[in-house]
Amino acid sequence: MRIIGLAGWNGAGKTTLLCRLLPVLVKRGLRVSTLKHAHHGFDVDQPGKDSWEHRAAGASEVLVASANRWALMHELRGAPEPKLEELLRRLGPADLVLVEGFKHEPHPKLEIYRLANGKAPLHTDDPSIVAVVSDAPFPEARVPVLGLDEVERIAEVVLAEALPVQQIRWPGRE
């Protein structure tokens, strides 16, 4: 399993690009999974559903399965948020994992940058950023800069720069 991320400030277009990139990669015969970091509380369940009631009653994990999909919900119940490395171990087999968010982790990443956000670019201070996808030129960039609509070229960079998970230098590991 190889990994590459899409990082950038809120509103830069990470999800939009990921959703445009996925079909291109899948069409090339890759089995692609995604992993998204949410900075806010989220819920994939709804009050009144049995699975929601199980969690509300105190279950640590609830697995819901049907003929079409299954989902595992794990309640942290005060435990620390898991690190990206730990979450990757929970995924099933895939050729490639696209990670949205986790911008401070050491995996290779594409920075998605929009000038209108008014935020400083990340690539100037992050050696794990391997390319910038932007609506603005960065002639001084140390990495390739691609346009937001160059999805085929972005796919080429993703395939060239994604690393096997075991090659990532995770914090706390030698």
Topology:
Layout: E1 2-7, H1 14-27, E2 32-36, H2 50-56, E3 61-65, E4 70-74, H3 84-89, E5 96-100, E6 109-113, E7 129-134, E8 145-147, H4 151-161, E9 163-164
Parallel strand pairs: 1-5, 1-6, 2-5, 6-7, 7-8
Antiparallel strand pairs: 1-9, 3-4
Helix pairs in contact: 1-4
Question: Can you offer a commentary on this structure?
Answer:
The protein is of the alpha/beta class. It has one domain: P-loop containing nucleotide triphosphate hydrolases (Rossmann fold, 3-Layer(aba) Sandwich). The chain has helices at residues 14-27, 50-56, 84-89, 151-161; strands at residues 2-7, 32-36, 61-65, 70-74, 96-100, 109-113, 129-134, 145-147, 163-164. The strands form two sheets. Strands 1, 2, 5, 6, 7, 8 and 9 form a seven-stranded mixed β-sheet that branches. Strand 3 and strand 4 form a beta hairpin.
The main β sheet shows up as: 7 strands, mixed
Percent of residues in beta strands?
15-25%
Supply Rg: 18 Å
Helical percentage = 10-25%
The topology string of helices and strands comes to EHEHEEHEEEEHE
In the CATH scheme, what's the topology name?
Rossmann fold
What is the assigned CATH homologous superfamily? P-loop containing nucleotide triphosphate hydrolases
Task: Note the total helix count.
Answer: 4
Q: Quickly give the structural class.
A: alpha/beta
Number of strands: 9
How many domains in all?
A: 1
The level 1 CATH classification is Alpha Beta
Principal-axes geometry comes out as globular
* Average pLDDT: 92
Uncertain spans: none
CATH arch. level architecture? 3-Layer(aba) Sandwich
Distance between the termini: 20 Å
